[in-house]
Design a protein that fits this description.
two-stranded antiparallel sheet; 4-stranded parallel sheet; alpha/beta; 113 residues; globular; single chain; Rossmann fold
């Protein structure tokens, strides 16, 4: 069975930050017969309130963690969201380098372009 990684997104729910994957995304991918792997951002950053230009660069250790997660994925699906993060950019660049198929919707498609 193929494994498709989906980077989780941030939102505020009842004043609390949460990580999420839309239920429609999970169901749609599972209905195609793939195993869905949630890919959790690894930096210790407030993703909701940090401006795009203020994100710290990824460390070598963080890049290695991303690489290990990609090693078990047969594909990556980038969902919509509100902003690109260094984590997303590196995940995309590394997936392309490792020749792992990628697909995006909304903001995810903008990242691909």
């Amino acid at each position: 069975m193929a494994v498709v990684g989906v980077p989780l997104r941030y939102a505020h729910m009842e004043e609390r930050p949460v990580l999420y994957m839309a239920e429609t995304v999970r169901k749609t991918l599972q209905n195609t017969g793939v195993e869905v792997l949630s890919i959790v951002p690894i930096q210790n950053v407030d993703y909701m309130d940090t401006k795009g230009s203020e994100f710290p660069e990824l460390t070598i250790e963080e890049k290695n963690l991303i690489s290990k997660k990609l090693d078990i994925c047969d594909g990556i699906f980038f969902t919509g969201g509100t902003k690109f993060r260094p984590y997303d950019r590196y995940l995309l660049e590394l997936a392309i380098e490792k020749e792992i198929p990628v697909l995006g919707e909304c903001l995810g498609m903008q990242m691909l372009s």
